[in-house]
Design a protein that fits this description.
Its EC number is 7.1.1.-. About 35% of the residues lie in helices and about 25% in strands. The chain is of the alpha/beta class. The strands form two sheets. A five-stranded mixed β-sheet has the order 2-5-6-1-7, with helices on both faces. A two-stranded antiparallel ribbon has the order 3-4.
C-alpha cells in the first residue's frame, strides 16, 4: 500500500516558519499521520490542549502555581480558603532539557487552538524565534482536508 502523504512539505514549512496553524478533518486521523512523520524525521512531540492552559508563557517557559480543586474540603486556619498552591515546572523548557541527544527539537502540538486569544497566538508565533529548538503546531479548526499555513498568517486573517 503506498503512502498517502510523505509530510515533507509540512515539515519544511514547520522548520521554515517555526509555528503552523493547521486545519484538520473533524473525523480525525490525519494529525496522527503528520505526527508520525515528524517523529520519523527526528522531532519529539508533546500534545497539549489549549483548554485550561491559563497564562501560556508561564505554563510553557516558567514555573507556575496551580491550585487543585478542593472537592469540598477546606483547611480552616491553616492555608488559604481556596486551597494550597502547588508549583509545576514549565512544560516546554523541562522537555527541552530532557530531549534525546539526536533529537532535532521539540514540537508542541496544541489541540483546540480556536479558544486561544490573539495575544496568546502571537506569543506562540514568537516562541520559536526566542528558542529555535521549539516548534509549534496549533489546531485552529476543522476542514474537509488537512491544510496548514504559518501561524502569523492565521493571526492576520482572524
Amino acid at each position: 500500500m503506498p503512502l498517502l502523504t510523505t509530510g515533507k512539505p509540512f515539515i519544511r514549512a514547520l522548520e521554515k516558519s517555526g509555528a503552523l496553524g493547521v486545519y484538520v478533518p473533524l473525523e480525525g486521523g490525519f494529525e496522527g499521520r503528520y505526527q508520525r512523520r515528524l517523529r520519523a524525521s527526528g522531532y519529539t512531540i508533546v500534545n497539549i490542549t489549549a483548554r485550561g492552559l491559563g497564562d501560556v508563557s508561564s505554563y510553557l517557559t516558567g514555573v507556575h502555581g496551580v491550585r487543585p480543586p478542593h472537592l469540598g474540603k477546606k483547611n480552616i486556619g491553616q492555608e488559604a480558603a481556596v486551597g494550597p498552591v502547588y508549583f509545576v515546572p514549565p512544560i516546554a523548557t523541562y522537555q527541552l532539557e530532557n530531549l534525546p541527544p539526536k533529537s532535532k527539537g521539540l514540537v508542541l502540538w496544541i489541540l483546540e487552538g480556536v479558544i486561544l486569544s490573539r495575544a496568546e497566538i502571537e506569543y506562540l508565533t514568537y516562541l520559536p524565534k526566542q528558542e529555535p529548538r521549539i516548534k509549534i503546531v496549533v489546531e485552529m479548526g476543522g476542514e474537509r482536508y488537512f491544510r496548514f499555513s504559518p501561524l502569523e498568517q492565521t493571526v492576520q486573517a482572524a
